[in-house]
Amino acid sequence: MTNVVPPVLYKYRHFNERTIELLCADRVYYADPNTFNDPLDTKPCVEPDCDVGRMEDTVFELIRRRVEDAMQAGARAVKYRGPKTMSHIEKHSRAAAQEMIDRLRYEATDPELSDGPPGSIALVLANAIEAELLQQYNKGILSLATRYDCPLMWSHYGKQHRGLCIGYSMPPEAQSQIYPIRYGGHRTVRASAVAAMVLDHDEQARVAVDEAVLLTKAPDWHYEQEWRLLGPRGAQNSPLEMAEIVFGMRCDATVMHTVARALDRREKAVRLYKTHEVHGTFELTRSELNVNELSATYPRRALSIHEIFRKYATQDGASQA
Length: 321
What we know:
This protein is an alpha/beta fold. The chain has 2 domains: 187 residues, no CATH class; 94 residues. Helix content is 44%, strand content 20%. It has 10 helices and 14 strands. The strands form 5 sheets. The protein has a 5-stranded mixed beta sheet, with helices on one face. It has a 3-stranded antiparallel beta sheet with strand order 4-10-6, with no helix packed on it. Strands 2-11 form a two-stranded antiparallel ribbon. The longest helix has 26 residues. 24% of the residues are buried.
């Protein structure tokens, strides 16, 4: 994709414990795609467009790698790294892959399966490739938006304007890791592209498969204008530069004060804004947050008000005496 990365991208958040971690520890959260609100997002459909032999080789290699990676992780955990261990892992992973191929060949003989083009074995293998892709695409996704002033985004992800929007600028080293979403089209992934990626280590094929699996959404989501950063799942140190925070129209003053105080000694300052309506329209704008005004009000002590009243009451009583 050749799209120019915007200078600032935004993450809409409601205010909770994780948001505090992201702000104070300068972390980002790469979500598991299985948790996305659209069940069709990152769910590819493999088109069997190459010969059965190459599809079988692709399934075999996908399973072999998956089993090998899992066993090697277990071996590292118990500190088994000798040649016998490696030989056992290789033998077991290849056996597991071959067992699956044999099982798929048997399933393809089911008389209830269609024998029309491309044939039952091709369809069974395509389904197996789909399943393996979903298992092996274990990347997490950080979803970002191009706008801080999208009413739908505030409603869906900013807790109806009670949350906030974190603006990140893009350091040069991060710009090669972030990708725009393509809206529309289809969820089809060609088996030939997966085969080229897996068997031939073809980089262009890998990019095409990545785009089809991770970077394509239904056209109805176009309003999000989403960009995605891929990384290990879970909270990670941020590769982006936190540049600004925009608070929603309904964001509580105590939340704004808490965030401002939490970031006031940050090495690189973060600009703070408050969202407002554009009078007479459905558009949103923002203005710089007056932190001094907030600090004059918060933190406060409720009992001090009663103490002041008691003080004046005591003084009035003494004067009357």
